[in-house]
Amino acid sequence: MSAVPVDASPEATARAKTFVAAHEAKIRPLDIAAGKAWWTANITGKDEDFKKKEEIQNTLDAALADKATFAELKALKGLKDKGEIDDKLLARSIEVLYLTYLPKQIDPELLKKITAKENAVEQKFNTFRAVVDDKKLTASAVAKVLKTSKDSAERRKVWEASKKVGADVAADLKELVKLRNEAAKQLGFKTYHAMMLYLNEQDGDELLKLFDDLDALTREPFIKAKAEVDAKLAAASGVKVADLMPWHYHDPFFQESPGVFDVNLDDVYAKLDIVQLNEKFYAGIGLPVGRVIAASDLYEKEGKSPHAFCTDIDRAGDVRVLANIKPTEYWMSTMLHELGHSVYSSLNIPQSLPYVLRGEAHILTTEGVAMQFQKFSKSSAWLEKMGVKLADPKAFDVTAGKMLRNELLIFSRWCQVMLRFEKGMYENPDQDLNKLWWELVEKYQLVKKPEGRDAPDYGSKIHICVAPVYYHNYMMGQLFASQVHHALSKEVYQAAPATVLYVGDTKVGQFMTEKVFAPGRTLSWRDLTQFATGEPLSPKAFAADFGGK
Ligand SMILES: [Zn+2]
To answer: What protein residues have CB closer than 5 angstroms to ion ligand 1?
Structure first.
């Protein structure tokens, strides 16, 4: 006999079983219909398809908002917390369902107000154009000046104009933050930030500790990488390094690595078949993606979404990628990324798991897996092992290696600002947010605040307005990617992580399937990290990849 907790109750277990079965019967067809409608709308871009997608989404939301259903679920969650549900998978299903239904319990009137404010802010972003010398600039025109202009005065004007949207939305954003906090309070949380973390099985203090550790491990390598970038940026604009200002970087937030190195990585990919290369790579590691590619929509079309994503339509193997492939390094890395998501799906998560748990453990773990594979597009050794001949592999590596290192280090410092600013903003929306923002930018990104500047520059970052409390997951995904790669390198190869390229080795797919994919959502992201790597999530492996301690 297995050990059953003393207070386990057969009635509670039977009640939970009934609830989960009813949930699956009602929600599964809606999930599938929503997934298909979402896919179609993104392919056609037609109003009627977007309307259909919205209708199904509303039906789904209404089902999850149902008060009587939630009351039963809440009771079951209480029984589960007391240990009365003695089936582990069932107990986990109740936990996961509770986190799914809880945010839908916000008072409908308040939710309407929040949605209306969000839409108003999004509209302002969509219609905003930076105005310079009475001329309206599109976002790509702004990007072009910041990427190419050598004239500091012109860069400054364009950068300042691009920030005006922050002032346009600041008042709406403050109201939105207060409405979101009110909703969180209704559900028993101190702030909206705390609620969002709870729904994602995360915790504010734990997160700050993780990001403090990340700060300590990346500060020195970041300072070194930034010094090299700064020297090139200063030379390009004819200013001293000490006089570099936020507008000298190549994007409005210094979240990306400025393109200051020579070799053009696209030359290598211009003559390659990106789909074929991906298919060969994934088949080689024992995670074939032929079925995904056959169901996917991979090239540009009129009306189609210009982005890329992967979606698991039915948790029964109908997995698709939407992309707009061109023969460039960007699209090679994007396809490695999206197909990385695709192998961590019902393609390789066992059908024997209950429907509710037959998905990735967490958004950060699937982003992590995607990022783990994505990095290879910047490795000459990987390309050569894949049978691609490079004219000058050394030059490719110097540039690509620096790009990858800089991308990750710069992005990690930017994520520090985002996490800490959002936490501070939701904890006290009435404080001097302009000051908080620039203190964080100066401390973590080492970018100087322009003398006397006092503007809501945080508001010009759309994620702060419409994708709240989400950004830190990208960073945690990177930590997960490095940590899994290090564990795999040690266990499968007993080799230094930098030398492990996966090509043609089914042991890679076996490790990923057993250690990362197979548990699905039976494990939380914390337990999965421990299970896959033998340690809790930490920045150690990530920092080691970039010469940190
Ligand atoms: Zn992704």
So the answer is: 367, 370
